[in-house]
Amino acid sequence: MCTLGRMCTQIDMCTRWLSRWAFPPVKAVLAGALFTVMGCTQCGPDETTTGGTAAATSAASIAPSVVPPPLPWTFATVRGPPGIAAPDHCRFRAPLVRAPNQAHIAADPRTLGTLLVADVAGDPVTVVRSGTLRFDQNGKSEVGEWAPWPFVGHAPRAAKIGETWMVAWDVPREGGSSEVVLFRGGAATSLGEGDAFSAVDLGCTQDTCVLVTSRKGRVAPAGADVHMFGGAAGSPLKTVTIEPAEGSARPFGLAAIKSTQGPIVVLADSENATFWRTEGEGSPATVATVPTTFGVLDAAMLGETPVLMAHGNAVDEKGCAREGLDEKGARVRFLRPGKDAAEVRAPGAPSLAALRALESGALALWLSPLGCGSQRSVLFAVVLDEGGVPVSAPIPVGDSDTFVVAAVGSDVDLWTIRGDHTDWLRLTCAPK
User: Fold this and answer.
1) Do 199 and 190 touch, CB atoms closer than 8 A?
2) Using alpha carbons only, how large is the chain's radius of gyration in Å?
3) Coarse DSSP helix, strand, coil percentages of the chain, rounded to the nearest 5 percent
4) Closest of 411, 399, 315, 285 to residue 360, by C-alpha
5) Which of 297, 424, 280, 293 is CA-nearest to residue 356?
6) Which DSSP helix (H) or strand (E) runs through 12?
7) Overall fold of domain 12-45+56-429
8) CB 416 within 8 Å of CB 425
């Protein structure tokens, strides 16, 4: 989670994690070199933790209280100039619709027409309703199952297997440690405690889910744990530990849930991002290592090709791209092992970003201010070909405070929030 004082990691990881959820009406802003300024509150060897605790145990008390489901939304077709544009090589597969709301939302990147929603209220603000909303082609919502949303300040990891949602999050504990909790089959399970022990990414296919966490330890170790399991509460939990021979790389997220080499996990440090396979002879083992001078925004496997979306400039403590006296804005790079970087321009350093694999190629999206220090932010998008190269210049989709996005095959659901309303763009995208 991108939470102050809770993780010892680099700032670029926050950008990726933020792209999974949205908190209106507060604008999501990348904190620049936040972790450099803030430091790490729980990396010291003097902290007493319960790192390295035993195998997962049932812990119903760690789940938040069940609250009512979210209030239904009412979408309506946008009349008149919408101020929203489809990216090049994308078309609307259904009309653009808009709904007023003040909810917090999250999306499973691989599920269309469904959101995990939290309604908040009170002083202090608390989650008063949470669960899933499913939307039909006309934009009418149907309340789904309850799902936990433990903290107002950030969303949990969430993914859908069949008709059931899996949810994971981490909880601060005494002595600077944190505990990872997995909610599945209606029950919460603790995966233990450790220094900077965090739920980093979660994704599901039709029959298997994959949760990526950092590794447990009294002092946060490098590497990652990859937990694979089914949807039922009692299904076995298989864990593969990725333990780099050297360096301080920490888990960034999933590049693929399912591949010929099992789930593909990305670890990153200040210099490189490394793709790891989890199945096959000699696993876990590296698939590719890509230098990342300025930090990773997102990662995906396009077939057998690892692709990184990355900053192309240093980003300062104000979130501004810095490259000498360069006045041309920020750069966004698409990196592939053994190939030259493909690069596009943005008016400001991305504060949120997402890279979604399509049936062919990928869709890259990012939120940028209109220049350093600008209060106006715009969502940009560009389609990539099968090799991870942009097929056109980026298109400004529209003004936005934040967004979430899901893709299945060539179909994309893009939810953009601005002020007190949410726009739902249902697109079909392909590089050709």
Assistant:
1) no
2) 20
3) 5, 45, 50
4) 411
5) 297
6) helix 12-18
7) Methylamine Dehydrogenase; Chain H (2.130.10)
8) yes
CB 417 within 8 A of CB 97: no
Domain boundaries, the chain: 12-45+56-429
Burial letters for 376-403: b for 16+ Cβ neighbours within 10 Å, e otherwise? ebbbbbbbbbeebbbeeebbbbbbbbbb
Can you tell me whether residue 49 is helix, strand or coil? Answer: coil
| Cα gap 129→138, rounded to integer Å | 24
Distance separating alpha carbons of residues 57 and 176, to the nearest angstrom: 21
Residue with tokens 């804005």: 329
Region label for 223, one of left (φ > 0), alpha (ψ between -120 and 50) or beta (otherwise): left
More confident residue, 29 or 205: 205
- Here the tokens at position 240 are 């593969």
Tens digit of each residue's pLDDT (9 = 90 or more) over 338-364 = 999 999 999 989 999 999 999 999 999
For tokens 């099992």, the residue is 262
Tokens representing 385 are 């070909």
Residue range 73-120, pLDDT digits in tens = 989 999 877 789 999 999 999 999 999 988 999 999 999 999 999 999
- State both tokens at 269: 């440090």
What are the pLDDT digits (tens) for 381-407?
A: 999 999 999 999 999 999 999 999 999
Mean pLDDT calculated for residue range 256-263: 95
Are 141 and 74 in contact by the 8 Å Cβ rule? The answer is yes
